[in-house]
Amino acid sequence: MPSSSLSDVWRACFPHRPHPDVAPAGEGDSCRALLAEHTWLFLFAKHPLASECLDRVARVLPLLAGDSPLPIPAVEYHGHLAGLAYVGYRCLPGTELTAERFAALAPGQRQALAGTLGAFVGHLHAFDPAEAARLGVPSSEYPFAMQEDELLPGSAEELYRQDLGAFASWPEAEKALVGGLEDRLAEYLRLTRASAQPLVLLHGEVSTDHVLYGPHTGRPTGIIDFNGMIVGRPARDFLYLYGEYGPDFAAEVLRLYGRLPLGEALEELRFLHLWHVLARLLWAVKYGYTTRAGMLQGQLRILLAEAVP
Questions:
Q1: Distance (Å, rounded) from C-alpha 208 to C-alpha 188?
Q2: What CATH number did the domain enclosing 27 receive?
Q3: Cβ within 8 Å of residue 131, ≥6 positions away
Q4: What is the pLDDT along the chain (309 residues), one digit of tens a residue?
Q5: For residues 202 and 25, is the Cβ–Cβ distance under 8 A?
Q6: Which of 87, 33, 31, 27 is nearest to 57 (CA)?
Q7: What is residue 142's DSSP assignment?
Q8: Domain hosting residue 80, numbered range
Q9: Are residues 213 and 139 in the same domain?
Q10: Of the residues 24, 55, 90, which one is the last residue of a structural domain?
């Protein structure tokens, strides 16, 4: 449904109320969010890649929502405004399960959460990756290929080595860390070659921003923001759980997920966590956040030291 103005969107979506109550609901690099009638969340893409992502959301989520162990957005409105996609769905209940709120959960609540998240990720990963590709979901084994404004081309090994080269060329980079990262990358590439895993449909960011829960019950109420869907290695969907809720909790989710050898998956997550810190450092260097880059280099130093037997 092409539209030339927001008024066209509201008339098409709410024909009986063409002037709904609308309020801003946040804005990022990719999308602008508006809350309509205190019930409907509309996401409007800000650039072509975000538009492609929302088009994929509209195609894929209806196929996942029906028997999902956790509620996910049920897209009911989808169209294009000035050539860029938008989607609209009923808001899910709950609030973001931040690391601080997670820490306040009782042990039984954490265990229940681990089971629900394991079941949800298993449901997502059971989706046929060939069907996902047919629906336009891209594929990459590099864990950070889906950027805010582009999908990085190249093989995983090529992109990892680009990261290493960028870090090595930073004037403040410590040579010992460059060597340590080279060693860890070589170990990781040997691991992935020795244990080829089938690629799966990934959420891409199962994180504190996107896991919702009920503050009074402590129970998860939904998963949001599927804009970064990609087909890739399954361990990738546990990365933010590992970094934000802790390795022990991620291990329990993986155990209940049950589709990967636990030891191998945790070893992969340790590497992905390390490389995520490097990716954040490179972002900080690119945009001139010198103090933050130095802090992240300190984190790399600690993580590499922990990896030494």
A1: 26
A2: 3.30.200.20
A3: 63
A4: 466 688 889 988 988 887 889 999 999 999 999 999 999 999 999 999 999 999 999 999 999 998 999 999 999 999 999 999 999 999 999 999 999 999 999 999 999 999 999 999 999 999 999 999 999 999 999 999 998 888 999 999 999 999 999 999 999 999 999 999 999 999 999 999 888 789 999 999 999 999 999 999 999 999 999 999 999 999 999 999 999 999 999 999 999 999 999 999 999 999 999 999 999 999 999 999 999 999 999 999 999 998 765
A5: no
A6: 87
A7: S
A8: 2-90
A9: yes
A10: 90
Cα 93 from chain centroid?
20
**Structural domain count, the chain:** 2
Q: Are residues 64 and 161 in the same domain?
A: no
Beta strand residue intervals within 97-253, DSSP E: 200-202, 211-213, 220-223, 230-232
Helices (H), the chain: 6-13, 48-65, 99-103, 107-125, 129-134, 156-169, 175-194, 239-240, 247-257, 262-286, 290-307
| 168 and 112 housed in the same domain | yes
The whole-angstrom separation of Cα 199 and Cα 22 is 40
